């Protein structure tokens, strides 16, 4: 698993890696170290000790460089940012940098900051020690072998306003397939024209549904791209939901499109509707060569 795949898998989730004290910022870093770098952290203490005791942990030293914050410093994507004891009630804090920012601010994925779940957050540099930077940057950029099929993209949080939002099967808003309740939260995986592709919980189940909405839901920079999906030698049914209750269309033989993520064992695809400028999104059973 690389950085992009990690974000796609864990963003929006509250992870309690060690089963102690619930979902803490340290749990996010522990699962990041485990899944992306193959490092299984021990009981290394509160967040600040990932900086203070860095030299005591051979696995960290072998895999990361410790870089102090300076007035000209800007973190890179994949860096682990470490805050001092002035954050977290004396425990410090940890986040995974996105690579966005400048010398005044930066963004990182944090757990137990504005919410328990992993979310993209904006920070200034107050109380920052610095970062632990991965020595093997292929873990962040992705390996050469997987670059030919592209990468799953991290979702962006979408939140509805004070009224019900209609969900459509297509970016032209011609066919209603559902709705989102006021203030309901979803994941945005792309934008086509003025339409946002969102994935949300299918009521009363542990499955999910996808479609296009008009409302931006706070999304200012929608994800773009995904893995390069190519259908096989038969027509592939596209479902609105991973429960396969509603069909929204199909992919032609050998049709190519983008697959931004995998959900519930199915593949979310965004594809162009034949003979139009509109797009549809939905879930397929066939993996289209992305895995």
Automatic annotation (TrEMBL):
<protein>
    <submittedName>
        <fullName>CHAP domain-containing protein</fullName>
    </submittedName>
</protein>
<feature type="domain" description="Peptidase C51">
    <location>
        <begin position="1"/>
        <end position="133"/>
    </location>
</feature>
<dbReference type="Pfam" id="PF05257">
    <property type="entry name" value="CHAP"/>
</dbReference>
<dbReference type="InterPro" id="IPR007921">
    <property type="entry name" value="CHAP_dom"/>
</dbReference>
<dbReference type="InterPro" id="IPR038765">
    <property type="entry name" value="Papain-like_cys_pep_sf"/>
</dbReference>
């Amino acid at each position: 698993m690389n950085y992009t795949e990690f974000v796609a898998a864990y963003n929006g989730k509250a992870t309690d890696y060690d089963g102690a004290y619930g979902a803490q910022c340290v749990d996010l870093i522990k699962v990041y170290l485990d899944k992306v770098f193959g490092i299984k952290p021990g009981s290394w203490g509160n967040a600040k000790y990932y900086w203070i005791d860095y030299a005591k942990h051979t696995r960290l030293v072998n895999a990361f460089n410790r870089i102090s914050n300076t007035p000209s410093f800007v973190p890179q994507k994949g860096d682990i940012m470490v805050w001092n004891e002035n954050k977290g009630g004396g425990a410090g804090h940890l986040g995974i940098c996105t690579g966005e920012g400048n010398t005044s601010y930066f963004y990182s994925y944090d757990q137990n900051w504005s919410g328990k779940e992993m979310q993209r957050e904006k920070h200034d540099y107050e109380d920052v020690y610095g970062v632990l930077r991965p020595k093997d940057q292929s873990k962040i950029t992705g390996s050469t072998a997987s670059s030919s099929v592209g990468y799953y993209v991290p979702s962006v949080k979408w939140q509805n306003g004070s009224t019900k939002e209609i969900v459509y099967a297509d970016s032209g808003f011609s066919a209603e397939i559902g709705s989102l309740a006021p203030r309901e939260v979803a994941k945005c995986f792309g934008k086509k024209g003025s339409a946002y592709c969102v994935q949300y919980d299918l009521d009363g189940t542990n499955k999910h549904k996808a479609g296009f909405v008009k409302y931006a839901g706070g999304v200012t920079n929608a994800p773009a791209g995904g893995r390069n999906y190519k259908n096989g030698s038969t027509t592939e049914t596209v479902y609105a939901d991973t429960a396969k209750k509603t069909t929204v269309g199909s992919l032609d033989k050998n049709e190519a499109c983008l697959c931004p993520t995998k959900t519930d064992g199915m593949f979310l695809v965004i594809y162009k509707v034949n003979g139009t400028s509109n797009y549809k999104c939905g879930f397929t059973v066939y993996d289209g060569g992305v895995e």
